[in-house]
Specification:
Distance between the termini of chain B: 37 Å
Order of helices and strands of chain A: EEEHEEHEHHHHEHEHEEHHHEEH
Distance between the termini of chain A: 23 Å
Strand order of the largest sheet of chain B: 6-7-8-3-9-10-12-11
Chains: A alpha/beta, B alpha/beta, C mainly alpha
Mean pLDDT of chain A: 89
Number of strands of chain A: 12
Helix content of chain A: 25-40%
Low-confidence stretches of chain B: 329-335
Oligomer: heterotrimer
Strand content of chain B: 15-25%
Largest sheet of chain B: 8 strands, mixed
Low-confidence stretches of chain A: 1-15
Number of domains of chain A: 2
Structural class of chain B: alpha/beta
Shape of chain B: globular
CATH class of the largest domain in chain A: Alpha Beta
């Protein structure tokens, strides 16, 4: 397969195992219209304390990759291949019970819409306490103290009073903070954040992103950050994986990706992104639109929209070429 | 004379407040707003949720009547949403909405959608409806149009739907198009396409735009002037480049500092983060409405509402310290 | 504009896959056929006395037996089905018409108009339906037209509430705003923009209303408030009262037809509902 170059973890430093190593992950959805493969051989790794971005447009499979990594998919969606090795354990081999212990423990996740995650009928304090009791051997009284402490850690003003409120009494930003508080009670080594600020106003987004960056700095929590916003990637992330149509098309450090993008899709994405920092008189857009999940595209999946398409791209899928700086799946890589 | 002239417009909503016993209250979503839009000009209205920008857009488009103040279009008073002069000028102001999945009637074909305004405003004789609809689709980049006319909205992607919505808006040859977050729901690559379409149509149909958005990247790349709103009020107006180089209101400065730049070499190292959330517009803070979150707040801000003052060549700012050289507007200039 | 949107056409295709609703649809098809062509199929004149012996059990000559006056039960069921279906369909139609008008007006305009219309609707809803129907028919006379009107006047509140809630959510949709900006009149907005999008639940409800109307008609007839000039399934049940023990076929067969038809209507309504409500569409 094209991702074979990634075998062995692909970590640059020999001997330092990545915290999370995902190899050839494949997720399929069965329906009466046939089987679709929203995640098709995705490989990536995250080292301890690193913030890694998984970036792409809607339908590229980035959220499904995150959910599959957490094994939070259910019928008709199923993980059909690959390995998800977290701290030395293949998560895909765990029993449901073992996986439940893993989630919310060493491995935590936050979502775009906190309301789908929070119980609307439970006080904030009780929800955090519940999460604490699930993973830590403490008494309820102790857990209540830890809950208020967790709210303080996510910089909620007057945490004692917020703890006594119900989710609907909180603003969107506050709810996301509560979700983060729940996620970090168990001191996870990896936090998966799926578009955590997309629904928020820009000033509140800045607060939440700042908070996440702070948690990484103080607790050393690594993060997988799912987003479509290249601004947030540039501002907060260390390394980037760019996804298109169920595949990783490019990976690299955030500086390399933004300074010298190698894949034409990454280049096009960057050129389409409007920056508040500079006036773009002639921003260039990509022709066409991202493929829908059930579109089957032969060869390179980006070829119908690619400005530098070769004959070969239409029929043969490009392999992922890797060097010290990163990797890209494009036929131009070898030719250049 | 500006094409659109908004004078001291306020829009109230009755609301039910549910903190404790439910009571009726009035929400002033737009409060004493004045500005103008010139012929063939693109003006952005930016602000966060609850700032009143969508309410303002709906009043300008004639979907609701202001509670007080007046709206003039090409010199004619169009304040009342159903008044006779509004009906006369219906054609002149059109709107494009945020959600391309909600703004097309799912039961109508593209042709039916486009034919409706053409018929109502008698743009072309009935026999030419199809040809006109096809021509409109080609103007928005959907060609060959014949293949699209008889399809239903659900057969299109988000970007294509937004093109159809734009075709509907320009069908009656308006002079002003109000675009309410018209690109916010779109993917990055599609967003750029639609923005280019807006640019192209501006020239071809000599349009003015009132562009409601929260995306400062869109503002800087598309719009000539920018209006910044906070809690129902305008806090700053200025030429886009002036505002981005040197914001004259601390809220504008905070918005800029909060907007991430797609360039890792330009990370905001020392940013002024605003604390807390936007206060409830039902009971806005006294004095300057921004004082509860303002990093530079002084005593006067808590007591006295600042007046609109002229700044720079063309701008205005609603800050007591707008024309002073203070830390916040210098800091941003360097960033 | 077509009544069925493309997505509903897909739904109808899915409907065919479901065996229960396919069965229900088949039963209803047969009933409709009988209602239209029943007279031609009837072996005897349903109203004629003495076409056979009195209270004869089912036999090859009289498939479902005869009644106390020697009329052929099978022929009477064919004729009665026509009357019951006619009552059911017309009552449901009037119900839907009133319900849509009231619900659409309340939902579209909101405010005081909504408050007033909804209070009136509630008054109709709290009155025991059957009791009032009995009173109305007893008062105005037991003929088919009065029965239909009595049923309709008592059934519309449910439809009105459904239409109102659909309108409340649809009226603020952006495509409605877009039509308003284009200059569309209020009538256009209500009937051409919003109503077609609210039809799904209305169609489901109308299906259920047909069954309910048939039951109400049967109930009224059973209490003796039937139109004596028109054979209906309810009238047959009424006439069979005295013979429950001695001539079971007189009550069993008309009763079974009503049960089967109403059951089929409910099943069809339920599966239509599942198909229209995406949350219940299953995956």
């Amino acid at each position: 397969m094209t991702s074979s170059t990634h075998a062995g973890g692909g970590a640059e430093v020999a001997g330092s195992e990545p915290l999370l190593n995902v190899v050839g992950l494949q997720t399929q959805i069965r329906s009466d219209r046939g089987t679709i493969t929203p995640v098709d051989g995705v490989s990536f790794h995250i080292k301890a304390g690193e913030i890694v971005a998984l970036v792409g447009e809607s339908g590229c499979g980035k959220s499904m990759t995150a959910l599959s990594t957490m094994r939070l998919v259910s019928s008709p969606v199923s993980v059909t291949g690959g390995q998800v090795v977290f701290e030395g354990t293949d998560l895909l081999g765990l029993s449901d019970r073992q996986m439940r212990r893993m989630r919310g423990g060493r491995l935590a996740m936050i979502f775009q819409d906190p309301m789908t995650f929070l119980n609307p009928l439970m006080k904030v304090a009780d929800q955090i306490v519940e999460a604490i009791l699930l993973h830590q051997p403490v008494k309820r009284r102790e857990a209540e103290k830890l809950a208020v402490e967790a709210l303080r850690r996510v910089r909620i003003p007057a945490p004692e009073s917020v703890a006594e409120r119900f989710p609907h009494q909180l603003s969107g930003g506050m709810r996301q903070r509560v979700l983060i508080a729940i996620a970090i009670t168990s001191n996870p080594s990896l936090l998966i954040a799926d578009e955590p600020t997309t629904a928020l106003d820009v000033t509140v987004q800045a607060q939440i992103m700042h908070l996440l960056a702070d948690i990484r700095r103080t607790a050393g929590t690594a993060m997988l950050f799912i987003t479509h916003d290249l601004g947030l990637v540039a501002e907060y992330c260390d390394r980037v994986y760019v996804m298109y149509s169920g595949r990783v098309v490019e990976e690299g450090s955030v500086f390399d990706i933004f300074a010298k993008p190698r894949h034409p899709y990454t280049r096009a994405l960057l050129r389409s992104t409007l920056s508040p920092g500079t006036k773009a008189d002639d921003f260039v857009s990509i022709q066409g639109h991202p493929p829908a999940a059930f579109d089957r595209i032969a060869g390179c999946r980006f070829h119908p929209r690619c400005p530098s398409v070769l004959d070969r791209c239409r029929t043969e899928e490009p392999p992922t070429r890797r060097d010290a700086a990163g990797a890209a799946a494009c036929w131009l890589e070898g030719a250049a | 004379m500006p094409l659109l002239n908004v004078r001291n417009v306020a829009v109230d909503f009755p609301v039910l407040v549910r903190d404790g016993p439910t009571r009726r209250a009035t929400l002033r979503a737009v409060d004493d707003v004045s500005f103008g839009i010139d012929e063939n000009e693109i003006v952005a209205v930016v602000g966060e949720s609850g700032c009143g920008k969508t309410t303002l857009a709906r009043a300008v488009a004639g979907l609701s009547s202001p509670t007080s103040g007046s709206l003039f279009f090409a010199g004619e008073d169009v304040t009342a949403a159903d008044g006779p002069s509004r009906r006369r000028t219906r054609r002149d102001i059109q709107m494009v909405f945020q959600d391309p999945f909600e703004s097309l009637n799912p039961r109508k074909t593209v042709f039916q959608t486009l034919a409706q305004p053409l018929k109502i405003q008698k743009v072309v004789p009935a026999s030419d409806l199809r040809r006109e609809a096809a021509w409109l689709l080609e103007q928005v980049g959907l060609s060959p149009a014949a293949g699209y006319l008889d399809r239903y909205p659900h057969e299109f992607s988000g970007g294509q739907r937004q093109r159809i919505c734009i075709a509907r808006a320009i069908a009656v040859r308006p002079r002003l198009v109000v675009a309410d977050e018209a690109v916010s729901a779109l993917d990055i690559s599609i967003r750029a396409q639609i923005l280019q379409l807006f640019r192209k149509l501006k020239d071809e149909f000599s349009l003015s735009y009132m562009f409601i958005t929260h995306d400062l990247g869109v503002v800087r790349s598309l719009c000539e002037r920018v209006i910044v709103m906070y809690l129902g009020q305008i806090v700053e107006i200025g030429a886009t480049e002036d505002v981005f180089r040197r914001p004259r209101h601390p809220y504008t400065a905070a918005l800029l500092a909060s907007s991430p730049l797609p360039d890792p070499t330009m990370r905001h190292t020392e940013r002024t983060l605003l604390q807390g959330d936007v206060p409830s517009p039902i009971s806005p803070p006294p004095g300057c409405r921004f004082h509860t979150r303002c990093p530079m707040v002084q005593d006067i801000c808590r007591k006295t509402e600042p007046a609109m003052r002229k700044v720079g060549a063309t701008g205005v700012s609603k800050c007591h310290f707008a024309d002073q050289d203070v830390a916040w507007n210098k800091a941003v200039e360097q960033a | 504009m077509t009544l069925l949107s493309p997505s509903m056409r897909t739904s109808l295709r899915l409907l065919k896959k479901n065996k229960v609703s396919a069965g229900a649809t088949a039963v209803l098809g047969a009933v409709l056929f009988v209602a239209v062509f029943g007279a031609a199929l009837a072996p005897y004149n349903p109203g004629q006395v003495g076409v056979g012996p009195t209270t004869a059990a089912p036999s090859p000559a009289h498939l479902l037996g005869t009644d106390d006056l020697g009329r052929d039960v099978f022929s009477r069921i064919l004729a009665g089905t026509r009357a019951s279906v006619a009552v059911g369909l017309s009552a449901a139609m009037i119900t839907t018409l009133i319900g849509v008008l009231v619900g659409a007006t309340a939902g579209y305009f909101g405010g005081t108009i909504d408050d007033v219309l909804m209070r009136i609707t509630e008054i109709f809803q709290v009155i025991p339906r059957f009791f009032l129907a009995v009173l109305m028919v007893a008062f105005f006379g037991a003929n088919l037209l009065n029965i239909i009107f009595a049923i309709a006047i008592l059934s519309w509140p449910e439809t009105a509430r459904i239409v109102r809630s659909e309108f409340l959510s649809l009226r603020s949709r952006q495509f409605v705003s877009a039509a308003r900006i284009a200059g569309a009149s209020t009538a256009t907005l209500i009937f051409l923009e919003i109503l077609p999008n609210a039809l799904g639940p209305v169609v489901v409800n109308a299906t259920l209303q047909v069954g309910q109307a048939m039951i109400l008609e049967a109930g009224l007839s059973y209490l003796g408030l039937a139109d004596r000039n028109q054979v209906s399934l309810g009238l047959m049940l009424f006439e069979a009262q005295q013979f429950l023990r001695s001539a079971w076929w007189m009550s069993l067969f008309p009763g079974a037809v009503i049960t089967l038809v109403v059951l089929s209507l409910n099943l069809l309504g339920d599966s239509l509902n599942d198909l229209i409500d995406p949350r219940r569409r299953g995956r």
